[in-house]
Amino acid sequence: MLRKIGRQLGHQVGQQLRFSAGRMLSTTNQLHKDAAADAKAEPTPPKSILVEKDKNITVIGINRPQQRNAIDSITAAQLCDAFSAFEADDTSPVAVLYGVGGSFCSGFDILEMSTDEKEEISVDILMRPEGSVGPTRRQIKKPVVCGINGYCIANGLELALMCDLRVMEESAVLGFFNRRFGVPMLDGGTVRLPAMIGLSRALDLILTGRPVGSQEAHDIGLVNRIVPTGTALGNALELASCLAKFPQRALNHDRNSVYSAAFETSTFHQAVQNEVMYTSREIIEDMQNGIKWFNQTFKADTTHSWLKRDRSMADWDDEEVAEAAAEKETKKQQEEAAAVEAEKQKQAEKAQKKSKKTEKVEEKAAVKEGEQTSEKPKSEEDPKK
User: Residue 207's CB: how many other CB atoms inside 10 A?
Assistant: First the structure.
């Protein structure tokens, strides 16, 4: 009986061990298969457009550094989506556009067009409503600051022209290098550039396709700031923060009026009329609040002080900075008054020394004259004798 039970238990244990071993072998084989599949699978490509928020500033980065941030059709679509999201974000008044790596943007990825089998596909890419490298045929609803580093050429320069303000590193290079390859400008450059720098200069850059350095770009009004190499993004963020601190309704009213006068009107009177028509009830309310703040802050005998204070745009409404500026101004006035008083004292001492010197000279002259007078009778008596 015991032997029969032992044989049954041994048989069951053997079956369990064989089942466990088979399951382990099957699992191991599956793991090997999964590992082989993972090894064959292509890695997930990095995002070609990076979007993040720095406080209330939307930061948009072109992330194709291996291609010098050349923009293909997928990247262009992602860039359009990023700007659409920014325009819809009421918490973000300003955006910053920059290029990851060593360049801002080298234009449209020509290699993508060269690999297309059908010519009409390439034409379709170029003639999209949004533009070939992003929303360049769109008027962005809110201010955009551009940080330019490395190469900003061809359609990439047109993308920079889409922005309101441009911060350029001193070693960066601009230019319509597409002139060398017979590629036309199709992203608003022929429209925006003449309005920015004038017809003659625009024709020079567009027809020659020559490189433009930072100093010339600043001198002709193509860029707004020149900054040290490696600081374009930081300085662009700082400039964007300056804009974000102002009342946005009035700022965007003036921005829209400027663009309207530059592109939508043919006469001065029409431009002035549009300037008035862009004003809304909300803007008037903001203006009234601003006037109240000004009247409460500055009195009739102190209104000159807000012009004298040496303050940055970013801190124009910072009370601590204003107090520090006021103390600095007071100290400066005290130093100036002390310098004036010291100069007066110096002049008085100088005049006093001069007066004493004159008195001494007069005393000497009087003594000498007295001596001559006392000797004169003796000299007159000698001939008589």
Answer: 10
